[in-house]
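chain below, 260 aa
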Amino acid sequence: MVEIKLLGRLFLNFNVEAVTGLHIGGMAAALEIGGLDNPVVRTPLTQEPYIPGSSLRGKMRSQLEKKLGSDQNASVGKAKIHVCKNMEKENICPVCRLFGLSASEKGGTPTRLLIRDISLTDESRSQLAKAHTNQLYTELKAEVAIDRVTSMASPRNLERVPAGAVFGPAEMVFSFYEKEDINLLNVLQDCLQLVEDDYLGGGGSRGSGKVRFVNLQFTARSSENYSACKSVGEYENLQTLKEGYSNLKKNIIDVLNLKE
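prediction:
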């Protein structure tokens, strides 16, 4: 039997700034003449747009798989993802160690990274409620597809949260089950940078989805004294996080008692 013991947790709180308009697709409530073809996802109670944790987590995983050249050998619905087939501890790749393996896989490993849904900040919510936009909290971006043979135009509207909107505070929770998990912290940092350099949501190749992670605050709880939450680092953006990475890693090791 494999023993799973929680050594502690690292909490990352941050804001997600939409540098360009952001479209994370939702379901249209009903088919309407002249209605939206591509609405954004909204909370049912307030109709505010938000960033689902699954969208950010999935994008981070996809980008890491591309960076590592991971074999796309498993299906999740219509999507292909990577799943390690050799369950020996030393053979489990960073993707599967960070994002976990299903219990259906023999000898699966627990998920280290949890990402919660991200709401608009109070300031952005207030600004967007007062803005003269096409929809509540959002704008419509007109796009046109041109048939290269007939030159016929096919217009469509893409609903987006306007550039400048800020979501947060976002929360990621990183659970430590082995002392070696500290080495995944650099992988997590790479995942965030990969998303910043790519895009989040849809329409990225057409200008949408560029985001920036700002105001990063790290705290940690050790399993030995779980009620105590200690600050281990604060950074303005990913660049300053990179510059202070060695100090952050040292603080986490000290708080969670990960020394050999």
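Confidence is low (pLDDT under 50) at residues 29-33. The beta strands are 8-18, 74-76, 79-81, 113-115, 139-146, 153-160, 166-176, 211-222, 230-237.
thats it, cya
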